[in-house]
Design brief:
230 residues; Immunoglobulin-like; 5-stranded mixed beta sheet; 33% helix; 29% strand; disordered N terminus
Length: 230
């Protein structure tokens, strides 16, 4: 091929796209678009083994929002009825029972210890989400720190089987950026993007050769036909 397209250049392009998306999200938050960080861009969360897309919705429309049921990420603007949703990116997980639990958490002021679970607001027993989307509804009566805990498998034995998605309610600016989730999501995007590009380039490399061979056969056939006619 005249043009060489290396895997490294593909990875660099996809990584640049991911950085651009993250920067766009931050700009949207600063500009007040829909009021809250992550309201319009992807909210990828995960641990070492699982990655999901997290969304939170509340009925109605708040000041500065353009639509009802605006999508939020880790900062939910107010108390009240809230719908939490995770999209399962791994197709194998869609065949595995998953239980959901919404808990209230307490953080130490100095950040010297992990968050402590205070109480469980609501939970759903383990079941299979074949359509790839798991939902749970919670009613938050007071501002604070909360988390959605998804347990993968009925017999979860390791910490990695518990996917914790932290978020805040009515504490604008308090949620921290989940870099682990973003990095996990970036790796997933880079992997499948690289596979797709390699497959496409392989197909492109094969098709011209095949077409050239068919064209050569046609020329040879015409030459033979002319020779026989003479």
């Amino acid at each position: 091929m005249n043009k060489q397209f290396t895997i490294s250049s593909c990875l660099a392009a996809l990584l640049a796209l991911f950085v651009l998306v993250s920067a766009s999200e931050a700009f949207a938050a600063r500009s007040g678009k829909d009021g809250y960080s992550g309201s319009n861009m992807s909210c990828l969360m995960g641990n070492d083994f699982y990655a999901v897309h997290f969304s939170a919705f509340q009925p109605g429309r708040r000041a500065g929002e353009s639509t009802d049921f605006t999508k939020y990420c880790q900062e939910i603007p107010g108390v009240g009825t809230t719908y939490l949703s995770i999209d399962l990116l791994d197709r194998d997980v869609r065949k595995t029972p998953i239980s959901l639990r919404v808990v209230e958490e307490e953080f130490s002021e100095d950040g010297g210890r992990p968050p402590k679970q205070l109480r469980t607001l609501t939970e759903i027993p383990a079941k299979v989400y074949a359509n790839g989307t798991a939902d749970i509804q919670a009613n938050f009566s007071q501002p604070g720190h909360y988390a959605l805990v998804a347990t993968i498998g009925e017999d979860a034995v390791s910490e990695d089987d518990h996917l914790r998605i932290p978020f805040t309610v009515a504490l604008e600016g308090a949620a921290t950026v989940n870099w682990l989730g973003r990095i996990t999501g970036a790796i997933v995007l880079l992997f499948f993007g690289t596979i797709g590009v390699i497959a496409f380039r392989t197909w492109r490399a094969y098709r011209p050769k095949k077409a050239k061979v068919e064209a050569g056969d046609l020329v040879d056939a015409n030459v033979e036909a002319n020779a026989e006619a003479r």
